[in-house]
Write a structure and sequence with these properties.
The chain is an alpha/beta fold. It is 39% helix and 14% strand. The two termini are 27 Å apart. The relative contact order is 0.13.
Length: 251
């Protein structure tokens, strides 16, 4: 386990930090979501977190399995994790490799003094801090009655704007309900979304990569090979795509 550089209270709040405290002064976006994201939500999270981070904006999340850790990994080193434990404990252990990188390259904060192991209410308190820190909230996927859906309700209560991607009918019922009720805006195109948010330093929207766009649909590897031939192997070697259970996923 990495040794924290400091465990000091941050100004105006009883919070403790380890890492690059200066990240707190930069624009921030909160990303929260399910611990069991489908391939589409995983791909969406990787892309939007990475592209927002390239704009110099900090991605805030809670280090949990699923959407949280995907967002942190894609945004490194421009990411901030809010821990449900004290900073001398890595939680969850299953995400230890990425959390150690956040300690070393980014920033982790906690409201708990050492030694504190998470309890049920710790996660709710952690989620409130995650939502409060972001200028707005992105929820890639959430079910009704889930922790992420409760975070959405809290975000609305304190006046934070919520953005969500479109899903197929029956998937991500929590974000679907938010859209239906007019409580969240839909992100139809990630590049357009970022350009509208950060027009002065927005990325240049280039012609979309046909192969990557196709691979975002999570096709079987054999199907992609039949369509694009040896190019698929090149993309795999370059790290643009990877295989999982016979299907292709986009990094």
């Amino acid at each position: 386990m990495p040794i924290p550089q400091a465990l000091l209270p941050l100004k105006l709040q009883k919070l403790y930090y380890c890492g690059r405290k200066e990240l707190l002064d930069l624009p921030k976006v909160s990303i929260v979501g399910t611990r069991n994201p489908n391939p589409y939500a995983q791909s969406f999270t990787r892309e939007i977190a990475a592209k927002i981070a390239k704009e110099g904006v900090i991605i805030v999340s809670g280090g949990a399995l699923g959407i949280d850790i995907i967002a942190h990994k894609a945004a490194l080193p421009n990411t901030l994790m809010v821990s449900p434990s004290s900073l001398d404990i890595i939680y969850p252990k299953s995400n230890q490799a990425i959390i150690e990188r956040i300690y070393e390259e980014a920033l982790i904060i906690s409201q708990f003094e050492p030694v504190y192991k998470p309890k049920a209410y710790s996660f709710l308190e952690r989620n409130k801090i995650v939502i409060n820190l972001g200028d707005f909230v992105i929820i890639p996927q959430a079910d009704l009655k889930s922790g992420s859906f409760q975070s959405a309700k809290y975000a609305l209560k304190i006046g934070k704007k919520i953005y969500v991607p479109p899903h197929r009918i029956g998937e991500s019922q929590g974000t679907g309900w938010l859209i239906q009720q007019g409580l969240a805006e839909v992100i139809w195109d990630i590049d357009d979304f970022i350009q509208n948010l950060y027009p002065k330093k927005a990325i240049c929207k280039t012609q979309k990569d046909e192969i990557l766009e196709y691979c975002k649909s999570n096709p079987f590897f054999e199907e992609a090979y039949l369509k694009f031939g040896e190019k698929i192997f090149e993309y795999e070697l370059e790290g643009k795509i990877f295989r999982k259970n016979g299907r292709i996923e986009v990094l």
